[in-house]
Amino acid sequence: MEFNFTGSSRPQRNINLGGAGGKSAAQLAAEARALRADRHMQKQRNVAATRIQAAFRAYGDAARTRGAYLADLDGVQWPHVVQWAAHLPEDAWSIGGEAWHTLLALVVRQMLHMLEHHPKSLGELAGAYIDAMAKLVPAQESYAEAQARLVRSMLRHGLHRALAAYMESLPVQRTQDAGLCMELMLRPFAVFSTSSDAFVEDVADSEAPGRAVALRGFVASVLTLPHLSARLPLGHVQTLAASLPLDEIEAHTQTLGSYYDLATHDEALSENPIHSPYLLGNLLLLASKRVPRMDGPQLQSYLVTLALLQNALPPSTFAAPTAEHDAVQASVGSLMDGDNEPQGESQSYPTLDEASYHNLRILVSDSHLHAILAQSTKHASRTRGPLCAFLVATLHAWPSAECEGVLTTVLYGYDHSIGRSAHAAHLPSVGAIVRELWRGYVRGNKLARQLGTSGASARLFETRKALVDESLREEWPVLVVLCQLYGRCLLTMGDDEFYPPDRLASGGKNPLSLDELVTLSGMLRNLAFVLYWHEELVGDGSGSAVVPGTSMPLLALRELATRLLQQLHTRDARHAFTPEGHWHMLSQQDLASFIQSVVLEERDLATPRDEMDVDDAPRAARLRHSVFSARTLAFISPRLGVLNNIPFVIPFEVRVEIFRQFVRNDAERLHISRDLFSRTSRHRATVRRESIATDGMAQLNSLGPRLKEPVEIVFIDQFGQPEAGIDGGGVFKEFLTTLTRQVFDTDRGLWRTNERQELYPNPHSYARQPDQLEWYTFLGRILGKALYDGILVDVKLASFFLGKWLGHQGYLDDLASLHSLDAALYRGLIQLKNYTGDVENDFALNFTVSDEEFGVTHTTELIPGGADIPVTKENRLSYIYHVSRYRLSKQIEPQCRAFFQGLSELIDPRWLRLLSRDELGVLVSGTDSPIDLADLRAHTVYGGFHEKDLAVTYFWEALESMDQASRKAFLRFVTSSPNPPLLGFSELNPQFAIRNAGDDVTRLPTASTCVNLLKLPAYASRAQCLEKLLYAVHSEAGFDLS
Q: What GO annotations for molecular function exist for this entry (predicted)?
C-alpha cells in the first residue's frame, strides 16, 4: 500500500528519453507473409460461397422443376398411359435413351403407388397396370442394364408390397391376375440371378444389391400373405414351390431372427415378418415337399428356420379354433402335464382361420415328421442338434394333444393318418433314438459333465453356471428332447421291461441301462434341486429366464426335470437300482438348519387363527390348497418347493420329523393341546362295541375338521354298561384301530383288494351312491385323524391310490401303476403292447371297456366314437393309455373325491407331498419289518421291577419265543397298534413301560394303551408268562379283562 500521498490523484507519467528502435528485417518479412495468407484465405472463402450459392440455386430449381413435372404426371390420363404401355413393342428398351428409361420408371412408380394404396378403387385398371409392368420386364434369359435399373427402382418403391396389397384385395379364389402378380414378384430373382449374402433392413436402400432387396420384399410381403396358395392357379403354386430360392430365404429369415431376443422378446427391427404366422404356414406349404430330397446342410438350415419361426410366435397361435380340438386337448392334457404360457410378441395377428391353421399343421403332420426323421437319420452327425432344437420349439409351442402325437411319431415312427409305419427303412427302432441321443450327444458332452458334478457345493455351482452359459446353447435342446422322449417311454413301460437282466445291458424295452439311469437321474436331481433352491433363476415363467438356445422357460425345464425325476424315483422305490444316498442333496450339517427354516416358512404360510375360525376350515382348506399349489410354493419358498416336488432329496427320517412339526404348528395355531392329560375341552362319543363303525360315523362325522381336537371314547359293552377306564388317548387309539379294521373290510362293499391284498375304492356303482360317498368322506377324516395324531392303523392301501393322496388325481405316471390295481389287466396290456402279430384281428378290441354289475354288462367308450375305432398296431399305445386312465382315475373319481374331501379337512395336502407313495403307506400303517425286540428292550422303563429281575427275564424270553403274528398282537395289546413306530421305539411316546402288578400269578397281564403301559404279574417261569401273555393278547377283551 502507498502511504506517500502528495495531494495529486493523477498518475505520474513515465517518459523514456531513449531513442525508438526500428523493426528488424525478419519481422517485416513475417508480417508480409501473414498478410498474403489472409488475402489467399479470403479469396478461397469467396470462391466457396459462390459454389454453395450456385448449388443451392440449382437444387431449388431442380426441386421446382421436379414438382412441376410430377404435377403434370399426376394430371396424365392414366388409362391412356397404361393402354399405351400395354402396346409397347418387344424392343421397347431400344426406342429411346436414358430419358426414355427414366420416363418408364416414373410411370411404373406411379402404378406401384396406386396398387399399394388404392387397389380396390382401381377396378380393371389394376389388371392393366400389372400387364404393363409385366410387359416392361418380360421373362427372358438375360436383361439389359436399363431393365435391371428399372427392376431395382421397382423394388426400391415397393414392388412386392404393392402387388401383395393388390392380391390381398382380391377375393380368396384362384385368378389369373394373382398368377400374373406372382410371376412379376419372382421376376427380380431372374434379373438378379447371382446369389448374395447381403442383408438389407429397408427395401428403399439404394445401395443394396438387387437380389438382397428382392429377398427382403418377397419374405416380408409375399410369404406373409394370408391364403397365398388359395389365390394362385394350381400351376403357379407348383411353379412357386419349384422356383422358390429356399436356401436364401432360410438364410434371410435366420438373419431376421437375430434381431429378436428369445429371452426378453425385445425386437430390434420394426415389423419383423418372423412374427407372422402366415410366413411359417406358407413356408411349410411350399417347402415341406422338398424335405425327402434335402441333404445334410439343407435339412439343418430348414430345421433351424422352423425352430426360429415357432419360437417367434406365441403358443396361442398354434391352438385350433374348434370345439372338437378342445375336447381332444382336454383328453390328453394331463398326459403331457405342461403349461404353455403366452410369450410376448412385437406384433399382433388375428386368430387363424381353418385354412391357415391347416398350413401350420403340416409341421406336426406324420408325413412331414417322418420325412424329417428319415433324412436326419441319414445325416445324423449334422442334423441331430438342429432336430432337437426344432423338437423343443415344437413341443413348447403346440398344445399337448399335438405334442403327444409328435413324441409318439419320433419314438415309434407311426403314421396315424394312414394307419401304418412310414419310412420304416430309415427310422430308428423303438427307443433307439433315446439311446442314440444319450450315448452319442449327451453322455459325454460338457453340459453332462457340469450337471453330473459330485460334491454338495460343486453341484450347486456348476449346475447354476450351466443354466446361464450361452456356450451350451447347442447341448441343452438335446437333453430336453431326451427327457421328453424317455419320460414318454416310461408311461407305457412295465417294471419287468424297465429292469434288464444285466445292469450294464439295455434291452429293446428299456433303451438305457440301469447304470446309465443312475447317471441321468443324478444330472436331473442336481438340475431340479438348483432350479428350486435358486428360485430367482426361474421367476414366474413370464420373465427372461429361458433355457439357453431355446424359448423354453426355465420354469418349463424345471417341470420337465421334476416329472422325469419323479418317474425314475418311483421305479427306484419299487425296486432299487441306485446306490444308497443317491437321491440326497444336503449334508448332515445343512439338514438341521433346513428343518428349522422350512418349519418357519410353512408357519408363515398358514392362515392365522384370528383370521379364520375352525368352523370355516373346509373353506379355508380349499382356499389355501388352491392358492398354494406345488408351483406357487416353489416360488414363495424354495425349501417348501423342494419338499413338495422332489422331497426324496431329503432323507425320509428328516421329512417325517418335518411332517410332525407341521402338525404341531397347526395344533398350536388352533390352540389344540397335544398333552393327553390336559384339561382342554374334548369331544365325547359313546360307542357300542358291537356297532363301532355305525356309532362312530353317527357321532364323529359331523365334527368335520374339529376332529383335530381331542376325542374321548366311552365303550359300551354287550350288557349296555360303560366299560371301565378313562380315555387318556389309548381308548381312542383302540377305537380307531378297531374302526378301521371294520370299515375297510371288503365285505362292506366300499373297498376292493388287489393280488397283494392292498385296498382301493370299489368301482361298483353301489359305492357311488350318496350315502356310500358319505362313508368315504368319513373314512378320509378318520385316516386324517390317525395321521394328525400319529396313530398307525393296520390298513394296507394300493400304491396307485396312495399316489392320488399326493395330488396325482388324473395323471398316469407309468403303466406299472396299473399293476397295483389289476395285475391281470396289466399283464394283458403289456402283452398287447409287445404283440408282433396282427393286433386288429387277433385281439378284436375297440376303444371301449365293459363292466358287469348285477349280471348286466355296461359298455363305456374311452374316446368319442370309440366303439367304431378298432385297436390296431398303430394306436394300441393310445388304447393302453386310455384304458389305464379310465381304470385308475375316471372309474373311481367320485369315491376318491369324497375321500380326499374328508382327508384334506385334517391334513393339508402340502404336508402329504413331503412323501412318496410308498413312504406315505409307511406313515399310515407302519412297516412290515419284523419287530425289533432289542430296540424295544433298549427303550423300556420299569416300575416296581429291575431289568435284572427274574420276572422281567421270563417276560423277554417269552416274547422272543413268539412268532411275528403274536408279537404284533402283543404290540397292539400294549400300544393299540400292531406296527412299531416309523423310526424305532425311541419315538414311542410315552416310552413302553412294565409295571409290577403283584405276586398273584393267576392273574392275566393287563395294559393301559393310553400310556403304553404293561401291568405284569411276577410270573414264576417263562412258560407261565408265555401262556398268560398269549391268552391276553389274543382275547381282544375290553377294559374289564382284569
A: ubiquitin protein ligase activity
